[in-house]
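Workshop exercise sheet. Pairs work together: one partner reads the sequence aloud, the other fills in the structure field after running the prediction. Swap roles for the next sheet.
Pair: D.N. / O.F.
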Amino acid sequence: MCDPTMMAVGKVGVAVMAENERVNEQNLASAKNSMAARTAATNENMSTTQRYVQDQRSLIQAGMDSVLEGRAAEALAYTSAIENGVQGTSVNEVIMEKRALEGRNKNRSQQEMDSLRTNTGIDFSNIDAKRQNRENSVPRTKFSMAKIAGAAADAASDLM
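Structure field:
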């Protein structure tokens, strides 16, 4: 027959090993989840960055096209006026109108660029928040003496 004290010690030992295994499994799950969350956030950041660069290039190109169109229209207006013998205030007004249009288009392009920059910054913040929420969804844990104490109390009550 086994000694009751040895049986009690055995129960406590088994409880310690079980608690250690539970802690290891939970922390491993947390580490895997954290790694997956960080990988997903990195991929999403890369995708957002690529989209930002492409949109930025598109805005820059559209702005350049607008400037070139404005300058071509100004040159055409000026050339046509000279060929037709028109001078003075009317020519200056046409040229000023073309320059104002060019300035408005340039301003519009700059506003779109600022908006793109702001929205991309918000996207990056949201990606980071999602990553943090995902990482926090599987918490880490540590060894709980309460469970061991409970096993010891059960073993002690068996002795009595």
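Discussion prompt: The helical segments are 4-83, 89-136, 145-159. What would you look at next?
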